[in-house]
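Exercise 7b. Backbone tokens:
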């Protein structure tokens, strides 16, 4: 057994049959839906129930993180869009045209995260345009949109993962 055989035995790139991939997917969507524009959602709920301290903290965090997102987008937005497009298209091509399962798996993690980033940017612009009024309602709708994306992409990932596992088979 040479070194390359040993490495490919230890590092299995069959992602959809790997439990760790599904754990990462669950953690990613849990985190993306909990932190709405950098504000933990339990703080939004407490503010909506009338907790004045939570409302002030939520307002401050939304303003700080909203301005941070908009500044980063203004300074390096075109570069970040180019990198995201390059990664997405490269992973999609190597994943589906060349049938590299690892690229498919990474694409199904990164592409929805890029979409959530774009949604976060749009939410920050909306909040700034309204002078950060009605923050709890805007963050609530942002979370619902992220959760809808999550349901869609978890379903697509699970469907594609099951299809891949059935067609590839246990012996490769």
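Sequence design result:
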């Amino acid at each position: 057994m040479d070194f390359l055989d040993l490495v490919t035995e230890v590092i299995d790139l069959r992602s959809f049959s790997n439990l760790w991939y599904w754990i990462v997917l669950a953690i990613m969507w849990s985190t993306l839906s909990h932190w709405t524009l950098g504000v933990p959602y339990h703080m939004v709920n407490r503010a909506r129930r009338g907790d004045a301290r939570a409302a002030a903290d939520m307002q401050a965090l939304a303003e700080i993180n909203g301005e941070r997102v908009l500044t980063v987008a203004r300074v390096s937005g075109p570069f970040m869009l180019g990198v995201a497009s390059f990664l997405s298209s490269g992973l999609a091509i190597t994943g589906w045209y060349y049938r590299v399962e690892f690229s498919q798996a990474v694409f199904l993690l990164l592409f929805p995260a890029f979409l959530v980033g774009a949604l976060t940017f749009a939410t920050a612009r909306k909040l700034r345009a309204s002078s950060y009024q009605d923050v709890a309602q805007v963050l609530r709708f942002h979370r619902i949109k992220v959760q809808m994306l999550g349901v869609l992409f978890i379903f697509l990932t699970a469907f594609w993962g099951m299809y891949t596992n059935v067609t590839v088979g246990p012996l490769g």
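Instructor comment: The helical segments are 3-10, 19-34, 41-48, 52-97, 101-129, 135-168. The mean pLDDT is 93.
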